[in-house]
Every structure is written in structure tokens, then in C-alpha cells.
Design goal:
With 162 residues, the chain is α+β, with helices and mostly antiparallel strands. The chain is 28% helix and 28% strand.
Length: 162
Amino acid sequence: MTSPRFTHLDDAGNARMVDVTAKQPTVRAATARGFVRVAPETVAALRDGSVPKGDVLAVARIAGIQAAKRTPELLPLAHVIGVHGASVDLRMTDEGVEIEATCRTADRTGVEMEAVTAVTVAALAVLDMVKGIDRTALIENARIVAKSGGRSGDWRRDGEEF
């Protein structure tokens, strides 16, 4: 059995950016999810809009969309691609805030990192806005849950509801 070839390493083992020049642009999408766990009192404050810093979910949504577009600035080997669509949805639960982001492109490489970056930065925005009232808040389970398009086709994480 041969060992897997890591595309981000050259023959000497040095990190490199994968050259996607020869690839044809195709429509691609990716969805990621994450969760911000907060105390019950914080859930109540989020639901009734009494968090001192303002509309937490609106700020987190915009932060996530902005982050998706800036992914190559944060991840050194990520390609600069056109993020042609980005949605960030936040939903309150009794334990905290569920976050889902979907990014779309018509480019040479996928948008998985853009989607998971959107989720994690949206989660950071929630954390930033509630940290003054809830020091126990924490980010959990950021993950890619689905992708479509490109050479490898469609994929969905087992156990995820869509």
C-alpha cells in the first residue's frame, strides 16, 4: 500500500500552494456547521434582545459572510477564489446558537474552507458579544457537512440532517 500524497507538500516536504491553473471552473458549494454553547441566562438575553452589545445574531451573520470572502488572508495556502454566494444562518436553541454557512462559487477549487471560516468567525462574533455576560460561552463542533461540484463530486457527512 502506498502512502497518501499530500497535495500541499512538494517532493522535499515543503508546504506549497497547489497549482489549479489547468483546472476548468465549475460550480461548487460547501456547507459547514458549528455551535456556540452559552449559559441559560445568556440564551434568555439573546432571545429577548437584552445583550448589552446589541443584535448578536445580526453581527455574527455579517461577520461570517465577511470572513468567507477573506479566507485566503487567514489561511496561507488557500486560493483566492470568487465567493459568489455566502449565507450564514443562526438559530437559537435552549443550549446556545447553532450556526450554518453555505458558500458557492464557479471557480477552479472548492469553497469548503470559506464555509468553515464563515462558521467559525460567526461563532467568534457571538463569543465576543456575549463574553461580558457569560464567561462560560464556548465554540463547539465546527465542521464541514457537505460539498458539491468539482472533480470529487458530492459528499455529505454521515449523521447530518438536511
